[in-house]
Amino acid sequence: MKIKTNLDFITFNTLIHLQYKFANHIEPFIGIGPRLDYLAGYHEDAEMLTEFEEKGELNKWLYGAVAAAGVHFDVHHWVLGFEYQYNWDMNEIVEFEDEATHAHNSVALRCSPFLVTVGYHFGGGKGHGKTQEEEAHH
Question: Can you list the residues of the chain whose pLDDT is less than 70?
């Protein structure tokens, strides 16, 4: 029998990107920043989290850090990007001690999304598929 639990989080994070553009079209970057997650709801086959919530042991606020690495390709006004993130929470959803064995137990969240970005730059200006020489002549 397979037991399934879905967690619905609202996540707040911000990243500081360090990037370098070369060949005027390719922009690799790395980033790091803080994150804050709120467990807005959950759906489970077994009542594990419900039991912890009833005892007041369910932590709905998680805090931690996010690290990212990726690349953006800028072609004319179009941007295509790929990004991998590692989200690390510094506290657990549930942390408890087993009454019978006195063993310390916890339920933690770790997720690593892979993101794809497609965008379009409206208007002109620097960095929209033109070389510095082309910008200087306009």
Answer: 124-138
